[in-house]
Design brief:
356 residues; alpha/beta; ten-stranded mixed beta sheet; 13 helices; 10 strands; 35% helix; binds iron/sulfur cluster
Amino acid sequence: MGLLYTRMKIFHFKEKIDSLPASVDKILAPVHIRIKPTNTCNHNCWYCAYRTDNLQLGKDMVVKDRIPREKMLEIIDDIDEMGVKSITFSGGGEPFCYPYLLDVVRKLSRTQVKFASLTNGSLLNGELAEVFAHNGTWLRVSMDGWDDESYSAYRGTKDKGFTEVMENMEDFKKLNGKCYLGVCIIVDRKNASHIYELAKRLKGIGIDSVKIAPCLVSNSGRESNEYHKPIFQQVREEIVRITGEFGDKEFEVFDSYHSQLETFEKEYNWCPYIQILSVIGADLNVYSCQDKAYNIKEGLIGSIKNMRFKDFWFSDKNKFFKVDPSIHCAHHCVADAKNKIVLEYLNADREHLAFV
Ligand code: SF4
């Protein structure tokens, strides 16, 4: 298997990169779209970025919003016709709580569009699991608790919630599909001393990869660093141990647990990734990215409530330049490093390109 988390994937879409600047009179389809089909969730995680008050993400989210079935099928038709390469379903809420997800992934399975989902894994069973297993590209299950008791304390779930998710994942792997199944362990102060045992159990049931990531408690990198300070060294050591003992070709360990930058300030004035990886919310708004989803003041690109996605996307390129990262994005940004690479490529002096 090649590199899954490389920042260089976009360079396989060179025509798209060259179309990005405002000065180019062309709009190409996004490569990847995140769709938030519903804002309803069957878990209640204390740190959920969409439900805590101190994070800008999700501040305008309405829990009861979900994309109507017919509108979702229209969006899928548009995405297929536009040549979008992939869709990831994510929250707002839990994508597997969306009542029409089975119809949607069945339809996607008949197109060239690749699909994936973030999920809590609690509803990963039945026909939906089968369609994902055989036609999806990847699933990533978020976890925090290491047994039934701790899992329900994190998520407010019923007694056997941890056991059920572990069984769902084990059964999913037994379907022998091509879909890659990963787990993201969200690390906070309570589970820091349990990530080794959790990773060991995940490897034992045949999970393909584990990503270890910090629980973000604030828009401020400094405050998140302070929160993680008492456990930081311990978690770093556990990750080295997990990688050394379990990491191999069948079980990838992806270390995403690191210090957040002291500030999240950006120095660039436009965001390439808005046109590369866009977000459609359950409120039928299109947002600049997943870090600004449900932030209408700073992240809204427009609405597709009364128009088709394809018509919205290909009209008026100015909408992609509403967000000025140097002013609006002084917070965590999943695309920051990728934006910088694309901007460096685009800003290379044309007269000097030949002097490689
Ligand atoms: S710079 Fe980052 S946070 Fe800002 S709009 Fe772009 S992807 Fe979103």
